[in-house]
Write a structure and sequence with these properties.
mainly alpha; Protein Binding, DinI Protein, Chain A; three-stranded parallel beta sheet; 5 helices
C-alpha cells in the first residue's frame, strides 16, 4: 500500500511537471523603431513635421534679424538721443527679445502637439499589426528589441518581417 501511494505521488508529480513544461509561454521580439521608420506613413509624418519646423524656424529667424537690425540702429543713434529716449528704446528691445523667446516656446509646444497627433495613429497601427501577427504565431509576449529598450539578447523569433508583410510593405 505504501508503494502504491508512492507511485501515485510520483505519477502526479510527473504529470504536473510535464504540464508545466508544456505551458511555457512563447516569446518573440521586434525592433519597433525599425518597423515604424519603414512605414510609409512615418515618412510622410516626418516630412510634414520638418516642413512645419522650417516654417517656425524661418519666422523666428526673421524676428531675430529684425531685432538685431533695431539693436544696431539704436546703438548707432544712442549718442544723439536723450537718456529717457534711450531707456525707452532699450525697453522696446527687451520686450521684442521676450516676444521672440515666447514665440520659440510656443513653436516648440506646437511641434510637440503636431508630432503626437501625427505619430499616435502610426504607433497604433503598428501595435495592432504586431498583436495580430503575434496571435497568429502563437506568441504570448513580444519584446521591443530597439536599441535602449532593455533587451540584451534577441535570438528568438523576430516578428519584424511578418509584421511588415501584414502592413503590406
Amino acid at each position: 500500500m505504501k508503494h502504491l501511494k508512492g507511485i501515485v505521488v510520483a505519477v502526479v508529480l510527473f504529470i504536473g511537471a510535464s504540464s508545466f513544461v508544456n505551458a511555457q509561454n512563447k516569446v518573440a521580439h521586434i525592433n519597433v523603431q525599425e518597423l515604424m521608420s519603414a512605414m510609409p506613413e512615418m515618412k510622410a509624418a516626418e516630412a510634414e513635421l520638418k516642413k512645419l519646423e522650417e516654417t517656425y524656424g524661418a519666422d523666428i529667424q526673421s524676428s531675430m534679424t529684425e531685432l538685431q537690425n533695431k539693436y544696431k540702429q539704436y546703438e548707432s543713434e544712442a549718442a544723439s538721443k536723450s537718456d529717457e529716449e534711450n531707456q525707452k528704446r532699450g525697453a522696446e528691445l527687451q520686450e521684442a527679445q521676450k516676444n521672440i523667446q515666447g514665440a520659440q516656446q510656443t513653436a516648440q509646444q506646437e511641434l510637440q502637439k503636431k508630432q503626437i497627433a501625427l505619430l499616435s495613429p502610426i504607433s497604433d497601427k503598428a501595435k495592432a499589426a504586431i498583436e495580430k501577427v503575434a496571435s497568429a504565431q502563437g506568441v504570448n509576449y513580444v519584446l521591443d528589441s530597439s536599441q535602449g529598450s532593455g533587451v540584451i539578447v534577441a535570438q528568438g523569433t523576430d516578428l519584424l518581417p511578418l509584421v511588415k508583410k501584414e502592413l503590406g510593405f
